[in-house]
Amino acid sequence: MTTALSKPKQETVSVNSTNSPQINAASLDSLSPNQQLLPLTALVNSHDRLEIGGCDVVDLVQQYGSPLYILDEVSLRTACQQYRDAFAKHYQGQSQVLYASKAWSCLAVCAIVGSEGLGIDVVSAGEILTALRAGVSPSLIYFHGNNKSLEELTYALESGCTVVVDNWHELKTLESLALEQTSKPRIMLRLTPGIECHTHEYIQTGHIDSKFGFDPNEIDAVFAFLSKSSLNCVGIHAHIGSQIFELQPHQDIGGVMVQWFKLAGEKYGLKFSELNIGGGLGIRYVESDDPPSIEEWVKTVSAGVTDAFVAEGLALPKLLCEPGRSLIGSTCVTAYTIGGSKTVPDIRTYITVDGGMSDNPRPITYQSKYRAVVANHMSASLSQTVTIAGKHCESGDILIKDIQLPVTNPGDILVVFGTGAYNYSMASNYNRLPKAAAVVVEGGESSLIVKRETREDLLRQDCLPERLRQ
Ligand SMILES: Cc1ncc(COP(=O)(O)O)c(C=O)c1O
Prior knowledge:
With about 475 residues, this protein is α/β, with parallel strands linked by helices. The protein has helices at about 25-30, 55-65, 75-90, 105-115, 125-135, 150-160, 170-180, 220-225, 250-270, 295-310, 325-330, 360-365, 455-460; strands at about 45, 50, 55, 70, 95-100, 120, 140-145, 160-165, 185-190, 230-235, 275, 320, 330-345, 350-355, 370-375, 385-390, 400-405, 415, 435-440, 445-450. The strands form three sheets. Strands 4, 13, 14, 15, 16, 17, 18, 19 and 20 form a nine-stranded mixed beta sheet that branches. An eight-stranded parallel barrel has the order 5-6-7-8-9-10-11-12, surrounded by six helices. Strands 1-2-3 form a three-stranded antiparallel beta sheet. Helix 9 runs parallel beside helix 10. The site of pyridoxal-5'-phosphate (PLP) has 18 residues, from helix 11.
């Protein structure tokens, strides 16, 4: 399996060293795969073009059009294996990694992740359906969400998924649904651990003022309810946020959760066996990002949980986690075709691409930063500072501000790195743009995993009442 930038075909140009280093062939070498910015198989081929999974990115755009999400299968499988291997090495109890499919839910992604032995965390009936159709066992599907509908809960129970219960309304709904089931529905409880972390406000979830999970004040009442219920509660869950670089908050989860494990057993006779500590490990989008490795994260959470449970004299729980971004974020790039440009004298030059906030809403939503290269001239010198604008009718539709690129021309291919997580899954049809296609690449072969929408697809759900017809 390829795990490093392949040397033979690669340009060996010196590392670019401006104050704000940018990527081209010169700096690919310095951005080793361990630094998580590039897919593991990225290299510059003899045509001076970017290649991923053995496929020339410019050829891929010719074949499939743009914008195009390009998913590197080797990178995704490697990340799954890193999680699995790290738990085997650092945790003495049982463990199960679940892929948080909100990061990118589609059949092929669920199938790859499932074939690596991971389960799937889902947040809607649509994500359940996708995981099931991809062949994932319902026993490995965990259903989250703070407002699951009756129809979704029924579907989840009938499918045999575990429901991670978020609030009283849901708990009581499940209790009444349990009466119609032949076996006790398998549930977990989502609790708000009161752990703060430094990330964007919108993706913090573990602090007390959060819409998710039961408040610590409610826990006694919830456990008392469960002790007399028809539900099979197997454990508790917490997720503290996303794109987190600090290890301390994740280390602290064990200490908080063990108290509730203990309370459940000692006071209410509830026998919990599973502890789910959520996801949240961040990835490197730009050079200045410095996240811990998957192994460091797993080692830390394993130690935190082990120490806390040993100190309380409790058996180690089956430890679950549900990473999304750190599994898939760096495994995918988005290729765009460059269109026109506009220079505002003494201010900036805008270069436009044929996508934008509809295929990547993260910059406009979270002010997220990305890195990019011109894939058809990988070793051209980085001679201009430009801003990459999307094509949407929105001034804020800027993908990357102030990036150094070579001179570009209309028709050049711009590749943005790190677009595997929360891009396709958050994509929209804003301005009635058809959603982009996605391919998976491996060993020089590319296969379509999501078809490009057509103009006609955009009208598929529209209805024109008779009286409005002209
Ligand atoms: C409950 C839950 N679990 C897991 C995740 C995945 O987080 P990440 O992609 O940061 O690993 C999220 C993301 O918001 C989440 O809400």
